[in-house]
Every structure is written in C-alpha cells, then in structure tokens.
Design a protein that fits this description.
By secondary structure, the chain is an all-alpha fold. The protein contains 27 helices and no strands. The longest helix has 26 residues. The chain is globular and about 80 Å long.
C-alpha cells in the first residue's frame, strides 16, 4: 500500500523510517543510563544528581535524535532525485543482499529484475518506501562489518563516542565513556549511519565492486575524503539552505559535491593508504589540498577559468550563496589536489609550482574538454558506467604522469612556464598529432576515438 501510494505521488516512507526517532530516543536513553550507572559505581556522580541531570538533558537528546533522522530522510530525498539512473546499482545491491542470504524480495516487496528493467525503460525509479528498505539493509550490513573491524578502534574516531552523548556528559564522564560496555556498538552505529546518510545506500557496495576493497577499507577511505576536503562543513552549509533555495537545487548541490566524495574515496582506495593511521593521512593531505584550493581559479588556464566562473554564476543566480557556489563548482577541479600533493612531495618542488604545471598541462592539452567528452559517454548499465569510470581514471593517471614528467625536468627551470615550454619543445611532433586528433574528436567523440586519444596521451608521458 505504501509503495502504491508513493508511486501515485504520495509522500511516504516505511514504518521503520517513520518510527526511527522513537527507537533512536530509546537507544540514547539506555546508553546514557548505562553511562551514569557506571559513573555512580565509580563514585563520579552522587545518586541524588542522576535524575536532575537526566531531566536537564531532555532537550539536547531530542535535538540529537532529530538530527539523526533529518539526515536519514534527506538521504532518501536526494536518492529519489536520481531516480532511474540509480536503478542498475540498486538492482546489483539487491542481488548482493540476496546472495548473502540477508534479503527476501517478496517479504520486502522489492521489484524483481524484470520489473526493474521495465521501470528503467519507463524512466521510473524506486519509490521512497523501496529506497527506505535498501537504506535500512545497507546500514545493517555496514554496521555488522564495522563492528567486526579494527577501524572503529582508530584513535581519530574516538570523538564519535563522545559526541553521541549530550554535552553535559562530555568532559565530566570522558574516562567513564571509554569503559562503556557498548562503546564499539555505538561508534559502529554512528559511523554506519553517517556514511550511508551522506553517500546513499549503494555507495559502499559500489566501491567494493569497483575496487575489491572491504567495507572497512571503503569507510576508512570515505572518512579520509570527507576530512581532507572538509566535506562535512560544506554539506552542513548546504543543509542550512533549507527553505532558502528550491529543494531540487539543494539536492543537486549534494549530488554534485558528492561526486568529489566518491572520486576521492576511490583515490584513497587505489593509492595504498590503508596502512597509515587516519590522523597521519589527514595531516599529510589536508594542508596541501587547502593550499591548492586557495590557488584557484588563478592557477587554471583562461578557458577553464571562464568555465568555472560560468558554473559559479549559474549557481548564484539560483540563490546559492557565493561560498557554497564556489565550493561546489570547483569540486571537480579541486579533486586534482590529491595528485598535486603527491607530485610536489615526490619531485621536491613547491606545491604552487606543482599546481601550476598540472593545470597548465590541462589547459595546453585541453584535457578538461576530454574529461567532459568521457563524462558524456552513455552509462545506461553497470558495464558502460564501469567503462566510463575506467577511462576517467586513466585520464587522471595520465595527467599525473605527464605532470611528473614535466616536474622532473632540470631543477634550473624554476617556473611553470619554463618547464612547460621545455617539455613541449621535446614533444612538438607528438603534440601536433594529438592536436589534429582532438579536432577530429570534436565531431565524433565516441568510445573508440576517446580510447585512441588516451593512448596518444600515454605515449607523451
């Protein structure tokens, strides 16, 4: 009934979503009482203080619960905007859950594969109650994976436990919290909920399919991406636009900025960072990423600066505040900062110089247009989407390798202009051939042509 109502245009979720706040409130109450009982046994709190303290925290517990549920329903709303484009990934996730013995489609009233294919043809995605079922299952599966992992024991995530409780308990009961019998369960729950609410129900499964990583590794890489790029701050600023911009525009902001989270998560998964403590990894990349971001858009070529300015202007014209418009419009560009940080360190060159070389190559070889052409390729099914993602990854690797080759030229060449000029002089013939092929690709940029262009770029490095 809920599904039919939703398909007819009604706004409805599932009982689990509608009753989630009550369950969440009970969980907080139980965990707080366990903490206070332990504090009482340790002599940290007197018996007569307990009940007044509980009463005093009522309002904040309510806010904590409402916040948790705000992000849960927000995730459902944003995933609904993507509709039929999510169907293939959702179908693969459903089949994964079935194979694992976790899900029975008939019990949960989820469509079979043939019905999913029909919906895709009709450009009709899953209804909100159906998406709510997948959201619940993704959280349950991720919680179990995290609970059995070592990730939740990482010192960087210790504040997760503290911030689960109301502020009057933070300082006074900090040591008692560390001995809470359910501390690992609390941390696993908060991290699982936070990850899925911000990335969607199929994100972790998709990352595992693309990389072969474990759920623990995916979440760790996501946390690195979130922390290094300051994404939580950006997302909270988008949250604050409730009622100030159209809901569709707000969802689009989450989707556009979410691509940076996805690409950065993949980057960390593919660059062997799993052995480094989270705090050390964040410290290694966050300052450099901030430095590169601060250099934008000045570090870009003229054409790319114009494109970026147009994107920012389009957002501000729709009522998006300038700082948010700039951050979202620059998300695709600032992703390159991860490679630039590594390039500067490996070449022992200044960060600013590495950025100028990197973006200078992007401009001179018109790689931004090539990236757009790759992004425009059809991705109607899993394998087409995977092929497109592989090409995008190949292009990013080529940009990195080409930049490394330029930075490796004589240390006496200390400016980006001199380095790029010397590199171009060495490869004049190859660059002329690439330019001619790029002109042809303007009219017929299909998979075959783009594959050949990537090969030519590979020969340049």
């Amino acid at each position: 009934g809920r599904i039919e109502y939703a398909q007819a245009g009604g706004r409805i979720n599932t009982d689990a979503i509608d009753n989630s706040a009550g369950v969440d409130c009970s969980d907080h109450e139980v965990n707080i009482k366990i903490l206070l009982n332990a504090a009482s046994e340790a002599g940290v709190i007197e018996a007569q203080e307990r009940n007044p303290l509980l009463a005093a925290m009522t309002e904040e517990v309510g806010l904590l619960v409402l916040t948790d549920n705000y992000y849960q329903t927000q995730a459902l709303a944003v995933s609904g905007v993507r509709g039929e484009r999510m169907l293939d990934a959702q179908a693969r996730f459903i089949r994964h859950l079935e194979r694992a013995g976790r899900l029975n489609r008939a019990v949960e009233y989820l469509p079979q594969d043939d019905e999913i294919a029909e919906r895709k043809a009709k450009k009709c995605g899953l209804s909100s109650p159906e998406r709510a079922v997948l959201l619940a299952y993704s959280k349950m599966e991720l919680y179990e994976d995290l609970l059995g992992s070592t990730l939740i024991d990482d010192a960087y995530l210790a504040p997760t436990l503290t911030h689960y409780f109301p502020t009057p308990l933070h300082d006074r009961f900090a040591e008692i919290m560390k001995r809470h019998p359910l501390q690992r369960e609390i941390i696993a729950t908060v991290i699982a909920n936070g990850t899925i609410n911000r990335t969607g129900s199929v994100f972790v499964h998709r990352m595992r399919e693309e990389t072969g990583a474990s759920a623990e590794q995916v979440v760790r890489a996501y946390i690195l991406a979130r922390e290094v790029f300051g994404l939580e701050q950006l997302w909270r600023s988008i949250d604050a636009l409730d009622g100030l911009v159209a809901a569709a525009r707000q969802s689009a902001l989450f989707i556009d900025s979410g691509r940076l989270a996805l690409r950065a998560t993949l980057w960390f998964l593919r660059h062997g960072q799993e052995a480094t403590p989270i705090a050390e990894c964040v410290e290694r990349y966050r300052p450099g990423v901030a430095e590169v971001a601060a250099a934008l858009p000045a570090a870009l070529g003229a054409a790319d600066r114009e494109l970026l300015a147009a994107a920012e202007s389009a957002l501000t014209e729709q009522g998006v505040p300038a700082p948010i418009a700039a951050a979202v419009a620059r998300a695709d560009v600032v992703f390159a900062a991860l490679d630039i940080v590594d390039l500067a360190r490996q070449a022992a060159r200044p960060m600013q110089l590495a950025a100028q070389v990197y973006f200078g190559l992007v401009a001179r070889l018109e790689l931004r247009r090539l990236a757009q052409q790759i992004g425009a390729l059809a991705a109607d099914n899993h394998w087409q989407a995977t092929a497109r993602a592989v090409m995008r990854d190949d292009l990013a690797l080529l940009q990195r390798n080409l930049s490394a080759a330029v930075l490796a030229l004589s240390p006496q060449l200390a400016s980006a202009a001199d380095l790029l000029a010397a590199w171009q002089a060495q490869r004049a013939g190859q660059l002329a051939r690439l330019r001619e092929m790029s002109i042809d690709a303007e009219q017929d940029a299909d998979l075959a042509m783009l594959s050949v262009l990537l090969r030519e770029l590979r020969l340049l490095s």
